[in-house]
Amino acid sequence: MRRLVLRNALFFTLAQIAGIPLSVLLSAITARYLGPKALGYLYLATTFNSFAFMAVDWGQGGALPALVARDRAQVGRLLGTALVWRGGLSVVVSGALAFACFLLGYDSAFLAALTLVSAGFALSAITNGCQYAILGFERTDVAARRQTVEQVVTVMIVVPILGLGGDLTAALVGHAVSTAVVLVYVWPTLRPAGVGRLSFEAGALRTLLRSGTPFVFLNLAMVLQPYVDALFLSKLASAEAVGWHAAARKLIGVLVFPAAAMTGALYPTLCRLYATDSDGLKTTTTGALRMTTLLVVPVALGCALFPDIGVSVYSRKSFGPTADNLRVLSLFLLLVYFSMPIGTCLLASGKQRVWAVVQSLCVGVSIVLDPILVPWFQRRSGNGGLGVCWAGVFSEAMVVVLGVVLTPRGVFDRRFWRSFLVAGASGLAMIGVGRALSPLSPFLVAPVAVLAYAVTLWLMGGIDKSDVAAIPRARGPEAASPLPPRVTSGPSRSPAKTKGQVLRKNVPAGT
């Protein structure tokens, strides 16, 4: 079981390792050529579309893989029905979103960007539907390869457009084209993965809508918060502050991926364990929490201690204030690494509704704090995005506390707390080295500080040798054991989107 999770996580992680340089390169080139204001438009258009396209997804990211995993013979009718729903509703949602933004008074330049981003989202909705079905076979290799292909194709198309003097509109046309290329790449992988003839059935649509509804409320809470943040930021802060915040969120999206890889690997496995082995579910969740604990400390501390590394990629002159956003968001990052596996465990345990309520409280925090903090920081420092960052920290802290309370007893065992203490002690060593060498370039200090963390962790026995040894033994996707067919009439019990996945949900490459 552990090898299956590690193998699936390894696929995601290797894809991210390959994709990170390309993602950062594309984001940096876009920022340098177009500036903070255009990057802010891109951030707002992406955030608004993420919210609107929840209607297109309708919880299928949680329901479809679980339904396929429990009865693989139904994959053709389920996926075919899902694709018809996604294609038709994408057109309706895109038009409604553009009209709503027109009524809210957004200018023509933003409306043009919004329309092009919507086109990319519509194409990604089809691609994601295919990917969800394949994930039901406990196959993460297609998703991993898709991510790498997406980054490479987008860089190859968009970077020349920017280099030749193209504006935001031209760049977004390039994004849409690259998204279409990715769809062409993913479609032929359906049959080798086990997907047969596609069909549309009204009964399958009812099953998808019924099974996806619990996840709609969860996704609504998770996507509504960044939508509320973006709305208040666009109305209460400067256009440059929106761009600075967009750059910080982009960098945080890169840093959160190791945790997303782990929870993405847990996704189909915990879905199966809930139905067959409750003790195995707890043990697997504990292992994931231990691994994310060891990962998050150097990631969060690196974000707090060396934000200039990320800012330099964009341009210190134009994006200097982004460093302050990153320092605050390092706390958010620390909390997200815990809330993701906790939330996955709760959702796999059939607690979708209560977890959706917990996530909805985040929206309440943003609605209360954003109108207070954004204008306060805008007046005080000229960077209203800091208000959104602090509101996010407060809301995520609340989520983690409530998640710990709701988690099944036995998940937070002695092994977890030992890993937690050892990681904390190793983090102190990293801070000490970072502070001692602070006069030097952060590009030199950061690797040394991370090395100090790793060495301290190893000396204190924080790295489980059995976990390390299991990774090279991990086998390819054909090693996934088949699941016994199981048809459920009630709501799906599979995990919904994690925080990291929400950052990428239905988002065309590079945005």
The span between the termini is 35 Å
Overall residue-averaged pLDDT value: 79
Give the proportion of residues in helices.
Answer: over 70%
Proportion in β-strands: under 5%
Q: Count of helices?
A: 21
Shape: globular
SSE string: HHHHHHHHHHHHHHHHHHHHH
The low-confidence parts are 467-511
Oligomeric state of the chains in view: single chain
Structural class: mainly alpha
Rg computed from alpha carbons, rounded to a whole number of angstroms? 22 Å
Largest sheet: none
Number of β-strand runs: 0
Counted up, domains total 2
Give the gist of this structure.
By secondary structure, the chain is mostly helical.
Can you characterise this structure?
With 511 residues, the chain is mainly alpha-helical. It folds into two domains: 2-412, no CATH class; 416-466, no CATH class. It is built from 21 helices and no strands. It has helices at residues 2-52, 54-57, 60-70, 75-103, 108-135, 141-163, 168-186, 190-193, 202-236, 239-255, 257-276, 278-305, 307-314, 316-319, 322-348, 352-381, 385-406, 414-436, 442-459, 465-470, 499-504. It starts with a helix and ends in a 7-residue tail after the last helix. Residues 467-511 have low confidence and may be disordered.
